[in-house]
Specification:
The structure is a homodimer of 414-residue chains.
Chain A: E1 3-9, H1 17-28, E2 35-41, H2 45-49, E3 53-55, H3 61-68, H4 85-97, E4 100-107, H5 109-124, E5 130-135, H6 151-172, E6 179-184, H7 191-195, E7 209-211, H8 219-233, E8 236-241, H9 269-281, E9 285-289, H10 292-296, H11 303-321, E10 327-335, E11 340-347, H12 372-378, E12 390-391, E13 394-395
Helix pairs in contact in A: 1-3, 1-11, 4-5
Family (chains A, B): Belongs to the phosphofructokinase type A (PFKA) family. PPi-dependent PFK group II subfamily. Clade 'B2' sub-subfamily.
Pathway (chains A, B): Carbohydrate degradation; glycolysis; D-glyceraldehyde 3-phosphate and glycerone phosphate from D-glucose: step 3/4
Catalytic activity (chains A, B): beta-D-fructose 6-phosphate + diphosphate = beta-D-fructose 1,6-bisphosphate + phosphate + H(+)
Amino acid sequence: MPMNALYAQSGGVTPVINASAAGVITAARLYPSHIGRVFVAKNGILGVLNEELIDTAVLSNGDLAQLKATPGGAFGSCRHKIKTEAELARILAVFKAWDIGYFFYNGGGDSADTCLKVSELAEAAGYPLLAIHVPKTIDNDLPHTDNSPGFGSVAKYVATSVREAGLDVKSMAASSTKVFILEVMGRHTGWIAAASGLAARAEGEPPHLILLPEVPVDEGRLLAAVENTVMRYGYCVIVAAEGVRDTHGEFLSEAGGKDAFGHVQLGGLAPYLAGLIKTHCGFKCHWSVADYLQRAARHTASATDLAQAIAVGEAAVKLAVAGQGGMMATIERLSDVPYTWDIGAVPLGVVANCEKPLPPEYIAADGFGITPAARRYFAPLIAGEAPPPYVDGLPDYGAWVWSIEAPCLPVFKF
Amino acid sequence: MPMNALYAQSGGVTPVINASAAGVITAARLYPSHIGRVFVAKNGILGVLNEELIDTAVLSNGDLAQLKATPGGAFGSCRHKIKTEAELARILAVFKAWDIGYFFYNGGGDSADTCLKVSELAEAAGYPLLAIHVPKTIDNDLPHTDNSPGFGSVAKYVATSVREAGLDVKSMAASSTKVFILEVMGRHTGWIAAASGLAARAEGEPPHLILLPEVPVDEGRLLAAVENTVMRYGYCVIVAAEGVRDTHGEFLSEAGGKDAFGHVQLGGLAPYLAGLIKTHCGFKCHWSVADYLQRAARHTASATDLAQAIAVGEAAVKLAVAGQGGMMATIERLSDVPYTWDIGAVPLGVVANCEKPLPPEYIAADGFGITPAARRYFAPLIAGEAPPPYVDGLPDYGAWVWSIEAPCLPVFKF
């Protein structure tokens, strides 16, 4: 009897993480002599700890197709860092109870670390487990892969939004709003903000200024750049990564001070920048915070990203079937134009808890834009459209109610 | 020789206002014996006052097709309320200088008032002018028309975004974010926020709570509703119109107090609500402010909205050719299912400076949702997809550089 497989989603979800799930499940069905039942843990690793498993045999081909077209984490994800030996031991106990021989963990850097720890623990215990990491993060900060599935779609959403909002501001600038600020995700790295630069096809098109966590913001220089941009083009569109810091290393988003209750204002970066620019330059500002909208926008997913999300899921299964545990599936870029890529793999040890920063050569000399090298890197990642099916004018996303397998073990106490 | 026509865009732009422009220009070309040259004023009525006119003869059929697929105001819009007799007189002087016999003004309630004033002034002066208003406003608050072109596309964007972000929050709620707040436009009326209710197909699906300017928010009741929703469904998605007020009639968005400089916080409603909920309920909150993104999102325009935006433009020309000045083209709903509609017209006097509130029968008894009657009204307005062409992974929007006709008159001093 072949051993069973377990797949789980981890950390912040993406527009295409379910496509990786579909890739894993579909590929696993191709190897019945290697892989028995394919389970998914509800709410990521929490579902392992709580022994809440879903048997994916219930998913029809139609379900799998809809899974590829549905954003969010269809099985639930979690933010839970494995903290104790007891938790690790519990994971192994659940794996043993359910005869799990394959663990597919779909996440970012933290999850790669969990995947590695589980793999090492199983090995030390002499338990036959092949743990494979399926990469995913909109932050695009996983090393040793051309990009992280999820990122290309967010980049496409943000670049589309900037091009659109830029046309709006340009229309109004003669007598009203002159500055628009879009706050995007990116607490430690500026990949998403930088990719918005693709929106500009020609000199003077938005975004005019990109603020990156990698480049400390001097407020005087920023205000001068805003004034200069409005003078030259009549308006100014700014894309700011949430993690932008000032020259003292403080988050600008925390510069707004505290509210009447003494709490740090949750107001965020965009309203802070709008207040700053309005006060010092006198320009009417509008601002938007994309937040989860960018991370869930399956309706404008990148076809390239979708294909890669599916491919890394399928590749993880092939690695497992080939006996290659303790690995992460990767995307290897073969050429920029035309964009060609292949699937590779790296040991988890070189991925776990690492963070790939935006390369300095992608950042323009003035710190407010991107270079041609960055455009060459980003351009193929947003290529192609892969819209979901629509019903009644809205994307027809799946809404599954999972039935959980009856547990075998006592309840785990955290 | 037939007289010339002048078209201008006014107020906040929409994803489909350029489609109305294309409708006007295309239709005007069909009546060469009635209409001579077709000009557009740059930046709306400011372009009339400044005598900055664009001759649309330069626009090819390809340009007109691209105009229909491009958001924002391609010719520039403005926020300028005609304040003086001198300005009105100047408008008439420019019309005389350019032999303008047809004035097509594309805007909301304020613009309808301007259009009416210009019409009346011309009549009083014995100048032969047919002034026709082309309706447009994402706020959907124009009376005597089934809806206002622009609204359906924004409604589709907001409902799509809520469905998507809702799936994201649901994925994370077991161990992280439990509440998501989306702030949408609507300072005086809740049309956009209410339309987001279409995202829910079944009981318990987002949005769980809709906050409307028409329903004063009692914070205690709101917090209880949030707690109750999280208890029932595990998470809570809130859509809030920017113009939501408390029970004292104050904007909630101004409740956040003042910043260190003594300025009213620009932080807005969504971060205020997030702070409130976090403080009182302890739930991790995420929030998004859609702002211009919703108003410019041509990539997810409603096909129905697009068709109606074109139709009101064409209808305005037909009214003009039929000698029907001082009118606004309207959309008349003939039936809900299937949705059928026709074009009508009403005198400007019954439209100018009026505001159509959300009908009480569209608001659920608890004030936090919409009724089946509202769904019947909203559903057809978001129906159908009309994506723009894509190049290199992004919408291929037009980027025109207009040449301005040499002026005939002295410069106007405001």
